[in-house]
Amino acid sequence: MATSTTTVPNAGPVAGSRSFLSRLRDGDEIARLITFLFAASVVLVTLLLVFELWQGSVLARHKFGLNFFFTRVWDPIFEQFGALPFIYGTVVTAVVALLIAVPLGIGAAIFLAELAPQKISDTLQFFIDLLAAVPSVIYGLLGVFIVIPLMREYIQPALKTTVGFLPFFQGPMYGVGFLTAGIVLAIMVIPYIISVSREVLLSVPRDQREAALALGATRWESTWKVVVPFARTGIMGSIFLALARALGETMAVTMVIGNQPTISASLFSPGDSIASVIANQFSEATGDLYVQSLIELGLVLFLLTFILNGLARLLILVTTQRGSGTGLA
Amino acid sequence: MNPRLRWRKFVSNFMLTMTGLCAVVAVSVLFFILGYLVYHGGTSINWNFFTKLPTPVGETGGGMANAIVGSAKLLLLASLFGVPIGFLGGVYLAEFGGGTLAYVVRYAADLLNGVPSIVIGIFAYGLVVLPFKHYSTVAGSFALGLMMIPITLRSTEEFLHAVPRELREGAMALGASKSRTIATVIVPAAYRGVVTAILLALARVAGETAPLLFTAFGNRFWSPGWGQPTASLPVMIFTYAIAPYEDWHRQAWAAGLVLLGLILVVNIVARGILARGIAIPRS
Fold first, then answer.
1. B81 interfaces chain A, CB cutoff of 8 Å
2. Which of chain A's residues have a Cβ under 8 Å away from the Cβ of B1?
3. pLDDT value for A26
4. Is A100 in the B-facing interface, judged by CB distances under 8 Å?
5. How far apart, in whole angstroms, are the C-alpha atoms of residue B160 and residue B162?
């Protein structure tokens, strides 16, 4: 265990018997103090961030209270602010993204972890890591010039003629909108799902697979009925992680969602998300209440991602250390 | 072979092929992105892009020299702010930590790492822009530096932990104090890994747009000093891409190619170094 190494220098009787002064002269206490200050500043700055968001939205929180979350009016002129359309847009785009990204991502992770030879798996993982490094504004750029025209000309008409009887695929086809934003988001979060799920799948003990195969399971049956259930908590963690990314993603969504605070069942409709409304309006917001309402949206976003990230980390930790207990049955 | 077994074998092969297809689709996205950027960006990039200022709206031509310099300045100041905090904090976690505080610091760093970048922007706006009543390079750098802290912190801790215990014990046995051991043995042994991790952190924040929108803002001219609004490549890509001018779209592609090229090169080099595992010299 790597952590044990840190205690070694202090463990001997020599270190213990040295006086505080001699250690001070050696600079140990000074070094400890300096690094301590820097470490503590990380905590301070995080607390400051939370405080700033809380304090910065005090007017809006008092004026609107809980109604902020259930009002669909967003009117800077009459100073009426409700977050509902943005929360709706954020949730809908994230759900669309996950519906596409989860099957694709987990499928790819299964291939990388279970099927592909080590070398191919590592090479593909390298490309996946590079994909995760592509900045979101680049996805936005491609979204604007490639995905939007593609949606308007081909995908949306095709959806309308085949499954157009569903309320999700009706209305005018602008190219921009919830569906487009969801698709771009899906492309962005797939690398996260793949990387984490692959890691979790690789940590499943070998005997689990061998036992299933020895009982006569086919390769797929051993993977799907034994390995994946064993790793499912960790895979859930990777999905939460992806969800947190999708909710907080700003640029790519802002560039393709259409930026209109609408609530509509149709995925073709232009919409707006929490992050995109902040990106679009924050620098030109006038009046305290307007700015503070935007900051409150930021606070909501912060809390959402905070909870999801915490859950994700917990799930991944639990699986990589112990396996998803119930999957053993 | 009975039909049931044949069916199971068929399902197995079919599903496994599907997973392979998923992997191919996921990876091919990277090549689509690269292909489009090289195709559109490559035809629009020229010498003017690197040397000229943006032209007034409506005129074609011009470049993004101010955005390139602006991005460089932002990243420089961001590292000056984020790297020392991350690095020294990481030293504390690896060498002196172990109590409740170390746990709290790790938790705070993970929390900070997960904060959406747009929220970081709001924070920097409230902390730096409002008091000075000015969008500025400093404010943008603060936001970017803040995002570098958790990455630098956790990777410094990781690489210092990975230094073989014998090195540490050898130094202690020779009578070196702890601080001396850290400064002359442990950090030098781990520095390549740490530097690589910092490069990765830089590459990550180099493409960040959202935290710059209302901190560094944007500027169509040079931004003298550190207290003025400044242009940056990612924000330029954003504003040019959503603008209605053909010539701006061309330049957005060019800027996208330059930005992604830089980020991918840094990533490939850094990951190559890390993968070969030469970060820690083996005795």
1. no
2. none
3. 67
4. no
5. 5
Cβ <8 Å between A6 and B95: yes
Q: Does B106 touch chain A (CB under 8 A)?
A: no
A131 touches chain B (CB under 8 A): yes
A251 contacts: CB under 8 Å, gap ≥ 6: A135, A136, A137, A139, A140, A279, B209, B210, B234, B238
Is A205 near chain B, with CB under 8 Å?
A: no
What is the rounded CA–CA span in Å between residue A144 and residue A176? Answer: 9
Residues composing chain A: 329
3-state secondary structure B91-142: HHHHHHCCCHHHHHHHHHHHHHHHCCHHHHHHHHHHHHHHHHCCCCHHHHHH
Out of A34, A115, A250, the one facing B88 most closely (by C-beta) is: A34
- What's at A4, amino acid-wise? S
- A21 has a chain B CB within 8 A of its CB: no
Q: What is the CA radius of gyration of chain A?
A: 25
Name residues of chain A where pLDDT drops below 70.
1-26, 322-329
Query: For tokens 């954003």, what's the residue?
Result: B238
Contact A141 B165 (CB under 8 A): no
First to last CA, chain B: 57
- Reported residue count of chain B is 283
DSSP symbols for A61-89? HHHHGGGGGT---EETTTTEE--HHHHHH
Q: Which residue of A has its CA nearest to B162?
A: A2
What integer pLDDT is reported at residue B274 of this predicted model? 80
Q: What is the per-residue pLDDT for B191?
A: 84
- CB contacts under 8 A, A 207-246 vs B, are 218-221, 223-224, 244
- Which chain A residues are Cβ-neighbours of B126 within 8 angstroms? 52, 56, 295
> pLDDT tens, position by position, for chain B (283 residues)?
688 889 999 999 999 999 999 999 999 999 999 999 999 998 888 898 898 899 888 788 888 999 999 999 999 999 999 999 999 999 999 988 778 888 899 999 999 999 999 999 999 999 999 998 889 999 999 999 999 999 999 999 999 988 888 888 899 899 888 888 888 899 888 888 899 989 999 999 999 999 999 999 888 888 888 889 999 999 999 999 999 888 899 999 999 999 999 999 999 999 888 877 644 544 4
